[in-house]
Amino acid sequence: MTENDTYKTIETATEPVLFKDKNSKFFGYLFPVLNEDSVKHHIESLKKEHHAARHWCYAYQLGTETITYRANDDGEPSNSAGMPIYGQIQSFGVTNVLIVVVRYFGGVKLGVGGLINAYRTAAQMVLEASTIIEKTINIDYLIIFDYKNMNTVMRIIKEKKLNIINQKLEMDCQITISVRKKDAEFVFETFNHLFEIKIKEIYINS
Q: Where is the Impact N-terminal domain (predicted)?
């Protein structure tokens, strides 16, 4: 069985897009996010930047294997803004992203159908304008060993082309490596079978 260990996301914020309908303006923003604090920061910044706007509706999705998401209508009729935005995140298959659509009311009511279309379209436009990239799901391991075993550890790291993300090389050495998920079990067993060398999984990103 081949296990999917990749996901799609964006690396940098996308330039805002503008969708207009009956004098209402909908500005779409797309940001890369890794946690809810980052989500709050971007929303607060947009509320300051667009302090005269009427609504700041948004949706986000976090995670690769365990997914967290939220859709917020921010005063618009129920499910007329947040879920249409989130639907586009699902449609494009991206994660670790936040989309905010800022609305300036133009004096003419759009109705629920009009709102759904406007928020969905603004979200779609900003996703289409973004650069979507594919990343691998990685597992991080901490390798602990005495200095005398350095050559053994480094030989395996070089042979397997493993990515070192942190290291402390003293009498007692620690090296943190990041391994693509599909290779993780094999790499773990390779080190785990070695005498005087310990390996354990660690969690760096929230």
A: 22-127
Residue 1 inside a domain? The answer is no
Q: What are 131-179's pLDDT values in tens digits?
A: 999 999 999 999 999 999 999 999 999 998 899 999 998 878 999 999 9
d(CA 129, CA 137): 25
Question: CA nearest 117: which of 130, 103, 131?
Answer: 103
101 and 186 in a common domain:
no
Beta strands in the chain (DSSP E): 6-10, 14-21, 24-32, 55-62, 68-72, 97-104, 132-136, 138-146, 163-168, 172-180, 197-202
Same domain, 164 and 102: no
**Phi-psi map region of 55: left, alpha, beta (phi>0 left; psi -120 to 50 alpha):** beta
Prediction pTM value: 0.81
The boundaries of the domain holding residue 145 are: 137-202
